[in-house]
Amino acid sequence: DGSSVGDDAILGAGSLLPPRAVIPPRTLAIGRPAKVIRALTDADLAMVKEAGSLYMQYARTFRSDALKPIG
Fold it and tell me: Confidence band (pLDDT; 50, 70, 90) for 59?
């Protein structure tokens, strides 16, 4: 439909991207239809990267049987 989302842009959960919409790089877009609400800072992008790393660490811990059932 001709829509595009730029590098390091974030489209909020539940947002809808209309046909031919262009979300520029390093921006946050949300809504129905999605609209750019602000630019993303280096700190924002670092936080997203850290959250992803933590999520992967949690998955490794869960798969390692380090967590034991209670009872």
Answer: confident
